[in-house]
Structures are given as C-alpha cells and as structure tokens.
Amino acid sequence: MSYSERVEVAREYYNSAVHEMYKECWGGENHHLGIFDDTDSFFEAAQRSNENLVSKLKVTENDVILDIGSGFCGLPRYVAKNTPCKKVVALNISEKENEYAREKNREEGLGDRIEVIDGDFNYMPFSDNFADIMISQESMLHSPDKGKLLVECARVLKPKGQFVFSDILEKDLTREEAERIYSRIKVPDLSTFEFYKEKLPEAGFEVKEVQNLGSENLGKSYQSVHDEVMSKKDHLINERGIPQEIVNNALDGLKFWVEKAYEGKIGWGLFVAELK
Predict the structure, then answer these.
(1) pLDDT tier, 28 (very low <50, low <70, confident <90, very high otherwise)
(2) What CATH number does residue 179 fall under?
(3) Which of 51, 131, 174, 200 has its CA 20 to 30 A from that of 245?
(4) 183 located within any domain
C-alpha cells in the first residue's frame, strides 16, 4: 500500500461510523488511554493521562503548542485551561473529528485559544521552527513511516523545543497476533520502546525521559471502551445508525486488544524529548 493510500485509510477510518462510536463510547472528550491509579473511572483515568503529560511541559505565556493527531481536542482543551500558553494548534486528519472539536472548543469558550487545522502530520502545513512545544497522545501509530515523522516533527519544532508524546507500542506479539492488532485500527505497524529510543536521537532529539505507562492501563482502557460499546450496542445500531457488523467487529477487536494487553504483548509509553 502506498503512502497516500495509508493516509487515506486513516482519514476514512476516523471519518467513518467509528467517529460516532468514539463520541458515544469514549465520553466525547478524548479517545486516548487512561491512568487508573486509585480509580476505576475511565473519565478520571483519561484526565490523569492529560495531567501526566502536561506535568512534563515547561510552558510560558509566549509559547505556541502544537498537538499532532489531536482527535476531539481533549488534550488541547486541557492545555489551554491549565497552562499559560499563548495558543494551542491542533492538527488532525479527520474532518469529522475536527468539526466536532471546533464546536466543543467554542462551547467551552476556547475557540480563540485553540486553532484546529485539517492536515496530515507526516507533512505538516507549517513553516520550519513553527512550534515552541509539540505534544501527541496515541496518534503517531497511524504514521506509515514513523522515522520520517520524527524528522518532520524536528523540522516544525524550534531548537530546544520540547516534544512530549505517548504511543501504543508492540512488545511481544506473534506475526498473526500483530496483524489482528493492526487491522482493528487500520495501521501498518506499531512502534516499540526501542524504536523511539533509537530514532528520536537520529532525528535530532535528546531523550530526557521514557515512562512505561503499563500494559495494564492499556488493558483497562480498552476494557472500559469495550464494556461501553456492549452496553450501548442496541442504541448504536438502532438509533445512531451504525451497521451491526461494524459494532460487532469493534467489540471483537477491542476484546482481542484487551487480551493482548493483559498478556503484556502490547504496551504504552510516554517520551519526553528536547530538540538539540
């Protein structure tokens, strides 16, 4: 599959009926993972993920922060509310998600502090040295060439700028298991802890911290979403108009992800880096 075909697959995935399921079953705020320390609430766990990432940032009132793969803009809204930054720019490939995010940003009085841009993070529509800080949550797995993506991130970030991101990572999957994992979210592959540790310096970054956020948190996150989809199955099919086959496939895929997470075969990590 060509690069352009891979990009179109990602766009179509998030513009499809999956968009409605994500809105209904991930709470309409984020569709990333949660840190479940001392809570069983997925919403609280997802907020802790935001808190954890933002705690790594050194933000001033003049900083422009760029979120790549911003989804529903849950993280940009959290950043805008909880840091003194000048502006958050949210780059995302799904027009449906972006339309929803802009409306939600306006509803929360943040339309002037968050700019949502339709675009492909593999070829960002920004000049060199555009952003002071770059962030991302579980979106970089969609890149068909993650090494080149890191080089593009280095181009857009200012020297000495921070890059803090989390991603879902492959650990010990068989080839058959890997193909099932990839197929659920239409990606060509997943990265590993070792990949980012190697490729970040090659792209010009100094790795400051690597945080293993745990396969258990990943498993709990996807179990929460699975259970929510199951509880709303009839509503999704009969009232939201999502084909039954899509809902059933989502449930099967989510269940498999949960199993592999609890087996320790897929993981979740956060990386703190600085451009040299």
Answers:
(1) low
(2) 3.40.50.150
(3) 174
(4) yes
Please report whether residue 236 resides in a domain: yes
| Strand duo 266-275 + 157-170: pairing | antiparallel
CA distance 182 to 142: 10
CA–CA distance, 50 with 205 (Å, rounded to integer): 23
Model confidence at 21, pLDDT cuts 50, 70, 90, reads confident
Buried-state track 222-257, b at ≥16 Cβ within 10 A, e below 16: bbbbbebbeebbeebbeeeebeeebbeebbebbebb
User: Which domain does 265 fall in, by range?
Assistant: 3-271
With beta carbons less than 8 A apart as the criterion, state whether 85 and 161 touch: no
- Percent of the chain whose predicted confidence (pLDDT) is above 90: 86
Nearest to 165 by CA among 97, 116, 211, 117: 211
Average model confidence (pLDDT) across the chain:
94
Can you give the length of the chain in residues? Answer: 276
The domain total for the chain is 1
